[in-house]
Amino acid sequence: MKILETDVAVISAGTAGLAATVAAAERGVKVIAFEKGSTTGGTANMGMGPFAVESRLQKIKNVSLTKEEAFKIFMDYTHWRVDARLVSEFINKSADTIAWLEEMGVEFYDVIAYIKGSHFTQHVVKPPVGGPGPRCASTMMKILTDRAIELGAQIFLNTPVKKIIKEDGRITGIIAEDSSGETIQANAKAVIIATGGFGDNPEWIKKYTGYEWGRNIFSVRVPGLVGEGIQMAWDVGAGREEMSMELTCSIPFSLDPEKGKVGPDISYAPFRHPNLMVNILGERFINEEVMGNPTFLGNAVSRQKGGCAFVILNEEIVKHYEQNGFDWLNIMNPVEKVENLTSIIEQACQENEHMFMADSLEELSDKTGINLAALKKTVDEYNKVCETGRDEIFYKNPKYLRPIKQPKYFAGRFYPTAYGSLGGIKINYKTEVLTEDHEVIPGLYAAGVDANAIYVDSYVFILPGNTMAFALNSGRIAGENAAEYIKSVK
Ligand SMILES: Cc1cc2nc3c(=O)[nH]c(=O)nc-3n(C[C@H](O)[C@H](O)[C@H](O)COP(=O)(O)OP(=O)(O)OC[C@H]3O[C@@H](n4cnc5c(N)ncnc54)[C@H](O)[C@@H]3O)c2cc1C
Question: Closest Cα to atom 53, ligand 1: which residue?
Fold first, then answer.
């Protein structure tokens, strides 16, 4: 067994793990980050950028949202069922964290309102080449990694932590295993947990959130995020905090290159707009404009029989999009018009088990399982609503009321999906880990989604960039507080 000595041991070099490593190392303490994977950066490598309020960029762009307003929005949204002090620390630090990243060399392309009706809070990282898009935040994670090394922190890759050591009521280190299988004991005065939740653990998803992966949720499974940090924290007496999924909603698509195309392509685009949506019973259940907020859509779809719902289009609507462009655009879906959209969808219907094409409502019902009698009734009623322009059930804006009269019909089956999991470890606003009885476990900190229970049941997508920012800010807070704490440890 190898024995190492350090001041702070950080469990991961992911989003929160790296922020914690840099923040602690900046304070002159010895830090070692133990990372299970073969690369640093964690899930942020897949994303675009973090939330902040009152940053330099927001001021330049005259974004008027203040910290006070963001805090009120947050607390109203969560009905004050979350740790308000933690929310406040997070929001108040967010602009400073953007400045901190900029000082290291991170550049931000723009600040955006990622989804319909959201605020301009997401700071999109500028990649060294090309424009913004998925994975551009990996540039930020590379810069954080370089900064950690420059400050003298050590990062051990392929070295999963297996256990946290607690002696005489306080944390004294960790046990890890290196790539050759050798056990490492790192004696540390403080330990920071940041292992990214349990999004790759279907058993836990079922046990703690009620969703069944592959049946009524098709969430992103970032390999290796199986809840190890949460379990290790519980094992040394940490309290539990509400656990949920960071819900969105989509037609499921493959993330496995061996199973066909990877990720959503343009064939999905027409289904993402506010046309008729029904459940398997054939009933409308939503103002389809709500699709603009994938978390709200995920909530509504979760409630339906079978946990799914269908967007129904006909050829006329697809042609309308072909000629006039889509209803909504955003940075991830910036394409305005697509030629040959009908044939693209037809092709996709043959390749994706969640996309359907039919020459009659009977055939559509046959293929999808939607109740035929109810579907016919709903389509009739919906077409009448389109004529009058008045949706007296869900009050949809008349400009999105397009009748579905003639075949060909297309349907896309939507399921809840998620970016990952949320919550598990109870912390306070200093990110100190608490017991069930709200006692601090001396020397133990947790950050990122392992400890992110600040949204309660529904991700605060109206303040976009939130989870990545919580990881960065809570990681930073943990690093700062751990460095301060160790001064008191002999
Ligand atoms: C496709 C996608 C796009 C996204 N885009 C955005 C976005 O633009 N903005 C936004 O706000 N959010 C976004 N998110 C969510 C956000 O990126 C994550 O919530 C955030 O990065 C999580 O940070 P974390 O530090 O908690 O975990 P992670 O960054 O996932 O880090 C966890 C790390 O822990 C390591 N680990 C696990 N177990 C162990 C162990 N036992 N020992 C040592 N290491 C271990 C893992 O290997 C990993 O490196 C996106 C998510 C996805 C999936």
Answer: 419
